[in-house]
Amino acid sequence: MPLMKKASGFAMVEVMVTVAIITIGISGMGLLLLRAIQGTQDSAQQSQAMWIVQDFVGRMRANPEGARGGFYVLAPENIDCTTPPNNLCAETYQGNAEVAASNCTVDPNAPTVNTMATFDNWISTCGLSTTIYDSPSDFVINPQLTSVCTATSTRASTYTKQPDCTQYQVTLTWQTKLNKESKTEEERTNQNEYSMIVEFN
Q: Where are the domains of the chain?
């Protein structure tokens, strides 16, 4: 009477299937981790963008005469970050040297200049130090801060004798995570923005 033996152990097919399942699982976990990192980075950039805009708006509210005079209209291309303004309205560091604050009071004889607004525009756009992480904008990819006067009044309450700017729209735009694979840089990134409307009476 012939004896029958049962096969035992793993066949090659079973090994390959097991390897494939493990590989897919590890790939999925890696993708989830990548998405989590991207989401964390986007959230951090959003928080920093809000902080930058709110800081600039706070500077405007601290200088309402300059704001009503239209001195907080801001475009990045009009700011020279290599040359600080003549009057630095706060103690700053340039290199390793401390620079004392200047007198930034309003000069009625210079109706086209508001030294505080000039300093605020420069510091908000450029930062101060040449070291790494010298400004909140270093945590945001390619930030662009703009401020536009969106409403004026017939009243002329400032020394400029021009209609008051009663409303600004302050916007920070920056680039976010990769959008899709492409040879063109513009197609590999998403543009994001955060805006605030600030009004002055």
A: 13-199
